[in-house]
Amino acid sequence: MNDDSEHREDPEQEARRRRATAWYGAERALWHTPVEATVAERLTELRELVDAPYKLMDPYELVDAYGGGPVAEVERRVAELLGFPAAVFFPTGTMAQQVALRCWAGRTGSEVVALHPLAHPEVHEDGALGAVSGLRTVHPTTEPRLPTAEEVREHPEPFGTLMLELPLRDAGFVLPSWDELVDVVDAARERDAVVHFDGARLWECGPHFGGRELREIAGLADSVYVSFYKSLGGMSGAALAGPEDLIAEARVWLHRYGGLLFQQYPTALSALRGLQTELPRLPSYVAHARTVAAAMREAFTEAGLPWFRIHPEVPHTHQFQVWLPYGADALTEASVALAEQTSTVLFRRWFSAPAGGPPGMAATEVTVAAPGLEWTPEDVREAVRAFLTHLV
Fold first, then answer.
1. How many CA within 13 A on the CB side of residue 125?
2. Helix or strand or coil: residue 6?
3. Which residue in 289, 335, 267 sits closest to 36, CA to CA?
4. pLDDT at 76 over 90
5. Closest CA to 317 of 206, 180, 164
6. Confidence class of residue 355 from pLDDT cuts 50, 70 and 90?
7. Between helices 244-256 and 93-108, what is the axis angle to 10°?
8. What is the C-alpha to C-alpha distance for residues 101 and 97, in angstroms, rounded to an integer?
9. Rounded to whole angstroms, how far apart are CA atoms 357 and 364?
């Protein structure tokens, strides 16, 4: 008897393939994400890197071998952009942040890190700060925003490092005002704490801070971690920038954590490409995200929805949340159906409110990138109207 069960995809993988096919193959989208592509499609994109060295760096530079070459060039450019003496390349942001915080703990003599309960190490790293590095965390605030200077000053426990995620992704990609950020940093220094920025998405924060340059923003902190794939479209990878002695020690821990890879030149070249081509475009994405969010708000209002939320009301970066009073599965199905029937991607996956959140509500994250610049406000309103027909 023929048994095809071993060749069938599990339902979850089958659903993912259906979503990816619908979304990646759509003619119109606000943004593209590489996780929707097939292996063949990604390899086609990577062929662009063959010519990249001629545009990004000296093509006759030797490839990296446990560093150097394109990796060293990424480090040099990140340090220059952020205004720090040195930087070190990491294969993942989780590792970069782990190393940064443990290095600061050794210098401050305190294993306590103050951060937000929605910060990446608390939500997305399986408790690695404590399990791997022996660090302990405290929360100056539980409000869905970064802590205020008063909250930092009045926190009852001592801490050696204040970590600020800019923007705070799980709270809606939110940022403080420039003056609030300066005050928070000053409050930490009054407590003799160092300040570390989780700047995975720091690249797009300038417009919200009045058009300030990256080095001015990063200059508030003692160290900064940045990502190369979240906003810059790189394959993967991250960097930690800071004082020379901190970065020297970070290189030791990079090796100890297993992150000193033999060669990373494709990843490094994709990071250089992102810094050269995508970084200058981010302010235009931020500006258009505000246009898109406003058009969505108008369309939901015109449709007479009993409740909805665009958060932040005016996006702080090129990313924001949308909340609707439907189940996550129904909303995701509507997103897929819209793409399959109209070749338009407005939203992607939706997620139910976390424990303690509003029942019967679901949220999604919207990003506006290069493809989204072509959308007019009427394009957005039309797409929202079509999307809502799949929820009736």
1. 20
2. helix
3. 335
4. yes
5. 206
6. low
7. 120
8. 6
9. 14
Q: Which helix (H) or strand (E) holds 321?
A: strand 319-324
* Alpha-carbon dihedral angle through residues 357, 359, 360, 361, given to the nearest 10 degrees: -20
pLDDT band at 36; cut points 50, 70, 90: confident
What are the b/e assignments for 333-352, b being 16+ CB within 10 Å? Answer: bbbbbbbbebebbbbbbbeb
DSSP string, 150-174: HHHHH-SS--SEEEEESSBGGGTSB
> What pLDDT was estimated at residue 392?
72
Q: Is 289 helix (H, G, I), strand (E, B) or coil?
A: helix
Contact partners, residue 136, CB within 8 Å, separation at least 6: 111, 112, 113, 129, 130
The pair of three-digit structure tokens given for residue 74, joined into one six-digit string: 């990424």
Give pTM, 2 decimals: 0.94
Predicted pLDDT at 181: 98
Check residue 356 and give its pLDDT: 65
R_g of the chain, CA atoms, integer Å: 22
Residues in a beta bridge with 362? 324, 352
Question: What is the rounded distance in angstroms from the CA atom of residue 296 to the CA atom of residue 388?
Answer: 12
Query: Would you give the DSSP letter of residue 278?
Result: I
The single-letter DSSP state of residue 132 is T
Q: Are 139 and 114 in contact (CB under 8 A)?
A: yes
Strands 28-29 and 344-345: parallel
